[in-house]
Each structure stands twice: as structure tokens, then as C-alpha cells.
Design goal:
Strand content: 25-35%
Helix content: 10-25%
Number of domains: 1
Largest sheet: 5 strands, antiparallel
Number of strands: 10
Distance between the termini: 84 Å
Length: 165
Amino acid sequence: MDRRMLVALGLWTVAVAGCETGTESATVQIQNDFNNPAVEGFKPPWTICRATYLGVEFGRIGIGETSAPQKVEPGLDYVLMVAAWDDPECHPENCLPIASKNEEEVVDGQTRTIAIGKPSHQGPCPPEGVPPIPETVYNRILELYPEYGFKPYAQRTENTQCLPE
């Protein structure tokens, strides 16, 4: 082999080694931060019954707890959740669909904990200071968790937990 061939082979090897392999991943945990002492005022007693981020299920996360770490494909998405009000057992009649306030991003190789609390969530019938959930995000939660029987978006304020006692 002549010198030019060796150089070309070497460059090709470096290029192939640097190619994306499709195995990119990030490690994520979800923290139930509804009891955060640094947040002033009322601390909602939400248990996160189900949580999904970038298509990966994180399961139940009690108040003050953090999920097990999960591998996810890097990207940008909302944390989609079902949360129960003052009910660590997550009975459906005490649940509402909620989501992270912002789309959360992770990149390849990153390890990240996403904290969900009063200032970082949105819901279907929010109290003052909590933004309303967009229809597209709400509908994604309904598609993920139909077993909860949440009302359609136009009737979201009629979900059991939205009604005044």
C-alpha cells in the first residue's frame, strides 16, 4: 500500500469511529419536590402516581422522593404525570393530569434530576400562580393513561379534583 492509501485509510477509520452509533443516552431521575422548604407558601400534597419523560415510565414518586434513574434518549419534552392530591395510594378519584411547566432537555451523557414542585408544574384547574396546562400536553397524558378516565380538555375543570369541596 502506498502512503496516500494509508493516510486515506487512517482518515476513514477516524471518521467511522466518530460517527453516531444511535446509542446516545442520558440518565434521568424525577424528584417529587412538592414539599420543598425553600418554596414559600402552600405546599401541595401531590403524590406523583405515574410519570413519563421522553417515552420512559418512571412510576410512582412519593412526596420528597426521587425516582430510580432511567436511561432516556436525549431530547426535549415535558414530564407528563398523573398526580394524586393528599393520597399516597393514588386512588383514581384523587388524581389529576399534570405536567412540568417547561419542556425539559437532556443531552447525550448527561445525568440529571428533574424536580417537579409547585413552581415547576402546570395543571388542568390550577390555583393562582400555577399556569394552565396546554391542550396538546393534556391530551398526551390522556393518551398515556386512559385508565384514569380524565375528562376531555374542554371539560378538564370538571375532573373530580378540580371541583370545590
